[in-house]
Amino acid sequence: MSPTPPARRLRLHLPRRxxxxxxxxxxxIAAGVAVLATGxxxxxxxxxxxxxxxxxALAIAQTTAAQPQIAEDLTDTPATAGGPxxxxxxxxxxxxxxxxxxxxxxxxxxxxxPTPSEIGRLVSTDPGQALAGHDVMQIDSxxxxxxxxxxxxxxxxxxxxxxxxxxxxxxxxxxxxxxxxIPGLFAYAGGALAVGALAAxxxxxxxxxxTRDLAFSDISALLxxxxxxxxxxxxxxxxxxxxxxxxxxxxEARRLLGIGDEAVGRSLDEALGEGRTxxxxxGRVTGTDLLTVRxxxxxxxxxxxxxxxxxxxxxxxxxxxxxxxxxxxxxRGLIDALRAQDHEHANRMHTVLGLLELEMYDDxxxxxxxxxxxxxxxxxxxxxxxxxxxxxxxxxxxxTVAAERGVALSxxxxxxxxxxxxxxxxxxxxxxxxxxxxxxxxxxxxxxxVEVELQAEGRIxxxxxxxxxxxxxxxQRELIFTEGWSTKQRPAHxxxxxxxxxxxxxxxxxxxSASVGEAAGGGAEFTVVLPEALAAADLEPALSVPSDPHAHxxxxxxxR
Length: 560
Prior knowledge:
Elements: H1 18-65, H2 68-76, H3 84-96, E1 100-105, H4 128-131, E2 136-142, E3 145-155, E4 161-170, H5 171-211, H6 216-232, E5 236-240, E6 246-249, H7 251-257, H8 268-272, H9 276-282, E7 290-294, E8 297-305, E9 311-317, H10 319-357, H11 361-385, H12 389-404, E10 408-411, H13 424-442, E11 449-457, E12 460-467, H14 499-509, E13 513-518, E14 524-530
Parallel strand pairs: 10-11
Antiparallel strand pairs: 1-4, 2-3, 3-4, 5-6, 5-9, 7-8, 8-9, 11-12, 12-14, 13-14
Helix pairs in contact: 1-5, 10-11, 11-12, 12-13, 13-14
């Protein structure tokens, strides 16, 4: 025989949609609160009604005992059904709708009672406390059933206790009041439950619209997919709320911006500091594919507003692309220079050949000597004043390029820089950018000239690059140091507006500054001050610290 199949367990299947579950839970909560509130209200209501009934009975007893005629009749007349005490007590009972009013003497003998046959008999409950001068409130049972009672002493005109007054309120009336209040209470609870259910439905409808009628499982899957996508892509993603505070950072954004989880919940200015990067991500600078420099990285940012008033910004690292673009420009410049040198060399060779064919040997020797001497003189002049080999090689190469472009590049007489640079590559980047900008500004102008001045005083290095170009208007002298700002035409392979911001960033990283002003003879004069550029005189150059390799590879030409 096959085994008996196990009994199926009863399972409650909740609705899958999020809004339906929210509605069900809110209605259940509202119903539970209504039931709990009703129970908490009914529990003390019975005690309150009992207390009210006892206090009412006590008040009637005190009012009755306060009449001096009753105490006088109690001592002067016998306890009879038609006596003055019975008549007065019944009058008060009828007026107050009390269950009974019993006036007794000090022995506990009744002088009044709703049932006349009880007059002259002892009371059914102990009157000791009232006869001792105390007011008493209690719920007790007597000859007329269960009542709420109030007992007070009865005093004569001299204040002597001559008896007591006991007043009872029928307990059935108290219970009737409680039962009478229950339907109204349930009506209020039902109304509150209906309002709560309506509010729950409205809230659930709003949740349905905001969650687009998704189930909890769908939302969980979306969150898991979002986490995988955000932390898997190679673009930085920064999500902002409507107040401009960071609410989400993926791994790539943390790497590119150099911040961690502590930035979540803070504003962009607090997390990144004031600058173009914060302005671009906050939307204070508008546009697409906006360039910004963060540390030694060149970033391209795009910002998209969201329906809730926030925004999502994406970041791409263009450092390597800028490096390739820079290398491409350098290669093109080198090719142009070699082409020009080849043309010039051919002309010179033709000249030498002509002089030899004309048997003008002395003139040929003099011509060759002048050509070789000019190049040697330039190299010797640079090496004499600039003792750092990297920087000297850069200036010799720039002088050759300048000559081919029709610009005279020279060193100022006061130039002097020892071989004690801490970050020679960083200074090469700064000088290369400024000289390239100066050559661009002066090329093609009459009497074009660029002058480089490098001075060292203690550990401070001061660089000045002057040109005879058109100069920079005063209102643009700060704008040219902003990432992405340029008046030059953008080449096809890269962006402009990186070089001068990088120059200022490198200078400020060493505690220095970069500024621009007007040269003495017209044109522009760039000044860079580096307070900690040189090692102390008693330290070997080998102790110099190399710079970040990215610092000089992202150099970019800057236009005014």
